[in-house]
Amino acid sequence: MKTGIHPTYYKESVITCGCGATITVGSVKNEINIDVCANCHPFYTGKKKRIDSTGRVDRFEKLAKKTEGLRENTRSKREKLLEKSKKKTEKIDASLETSK
Ligand SMILES: [Zn+2]
Fold first, then answer.
1. Which of 51, 65, 46, 48 is closest to 19 using CA atoms?
2. Domain coordinates of the chain in residue numbers?
3. In this predicted model, what pLDDT tens digit does every residue of 73-87 receive, in sequence order?
4. Ligand 1 (ion): which residues have CB within 5 A?
């Protein structure tokens, strides 16, 4: 092995998870911090939990709620317009029939 080119190898470096779990492994880094591990990841725990440190999911849900309300409003507007146009065509039909 060539000297002076290899990083220091720590036989017992500690990986610390956000949930508090620690894992001891061999690594070139002495301390490693991670956000999720097998103890707390939803895939392994089976619990529904979002890993969302920046709040993007929350922002998306807020936006989805907003647009949902808008969509309902536009639907009702569309229905109103349809009713109006139906009434108009009925009026026109009635006037055509009377003119005959
Ligand atoms: Zn964890």
1. 51
2. 1-51
3. 677 778 888 889 999
4. 17, 19, 21, 37, 39-40
**Are the beta carbons of 49 and 42 closer than 8 angstroms?**
yes
Helices (H), 2-55: 42-45
pTM over 0.85: no
Between the CA of 43 and the centroid of ligand 1 the distance, in Å, is 12
Q: What is the mean pLDDT of residues 16-34?
A: 94
* Mean pLDDT of the region 63-80: 78
Which tokens sit at 25?
């492994």
Residue whose C-alpha is closest to residue 18's, from 35, 38, 32: 35
Token digits of residue 54: 């920046």
Yes or no: say if 34 and 53 are a contact pair by the CB < 8 Å rule: no
d(CA 86, CA 92) in angstroms, rounded, equals 10
Check: CATH 3.20.20.70 for 1-51?
Answer: no
